[in-house]
Amino acid sequence: xxxxxxxxxxxxxxxxxxxxxxxxxxxxxxxxxxxxxxxxxxxxxxxxxxxxxxxxxxxxxxxxxxxxxxxxxxxxxxxxxxxxxxxxxxxxxxxxxxxxxxxxxxxxxxxxxxxxxxxxxxxxxxxxxxxxxxxxxxxxxxxxxxxxxxxxxxxxxxxxxxxxxxxxxxxxxxxxxxxxxxxxxxxxxxxxxxxxxxxxxxxxxxxxxxxxxxxxxxxxxxxxxxxxxxxxxxxxxxxxxxxxxxxxxxxxxxxxxxxxxxxxxxxxxxxxxxxxxxxxxxxxxxxxxxxxxxxxxxxxxxxxxxxxxxxxxxxxxxxxxxxxxxxxxxxxxxxxxxxxxxxxxxxxxxxxxxxxxxxxxxxxxxxxxxxxxxxxxxxxxxxxxxxxxxxxxxxxxxxxxxxxxxxxxx
Length: 410
Hints:
Elements: H1 2-26, E1 30-35, E2 38-43, H2 44-93, H3 96-109, H4 113-125, H5 129-139, H6 144-160, H7 164-177, H8 182-195, H9 198-210, H10 216-232, H11 237-246, H12 249-253, H13 255-267, H14 271-284, H15 292-298, H16 303-319, H17 324-336, H18 340-353, H19 357-369, H20 373-387
Antiparallel strand pairs: 1-2
């Protein structure tokens, strides 16, 4: 911009000189200067030329006088730049002490927000909280972009150190100011996940999608995952029901979420709520491909729900008589209902169709109840052999240390 103005001034000067030149040549004019007994007469052009020469001489002299200072400042700037680069390289290498020392030398001459934040990161690497806060205070301002960036750096450092509540508090404040800032949203996502705040993470997914961090499908998957975790970490029946009510209608219809609720409700002894939900999931299974995990959950019940679940499994089994998972679930229900002959019959059919850990474990329990110690031992050995390959087994079908049927609501 300065060069552009200088060029314009030069062009204007040349234009004015070209306009005045003919008149000056015709009548150059004369200037008389009286100084005491002295009188100086000269033409206007000579006077103008003299003034210009004097101005050029003074400018040159002033430039020569200022040259040492400029050279000194340029040298200091160059050294500061080298120290800044040295500090950033040491920071990248993880040499925190050398990085902070180099950055301090650079910042003594040329302060910058980026340099202060880098020094704060180096101090954090040395676990020096006082130095870290000192550098952050130097980088911060009350308002504006520098304040926002400094607070974001503060939150990132707190998250790195495991100070989750502090990080979340800062990030939530920044999120209120800039709702679509990708850095804030990504750190909030990580902080909520590390802190186990699944409800907050689920509520954050629309903002993640609007900011373009995740697409719609990924946002839905993330919301479902957060809902599953929120349900799994419910500590009692009240919290579980409260978590379920907080979910939107779309999430309540998602199979992973409903399966998680059925599993946790069963673990907390809410057999009636779990039974109704699991039955609905089994009815909604497309193409008759009954989910094995759902069947295992469905087989876990107390005495009040057992008869209804037995009838439901028997009805489904008439439609699919060779489904090993249905046979295993029905066998476990028969076993818990003390109908050992029927349990043995369906479980033997189940392991003949598809040998599984769950099937052999339940069959071993049945044979134990019937006094067939040798048969029970064979079944348990088969179950142990298959245990290395099983996936997602549930405690209700684990090998028993004693007769636990008495503890299932009898």
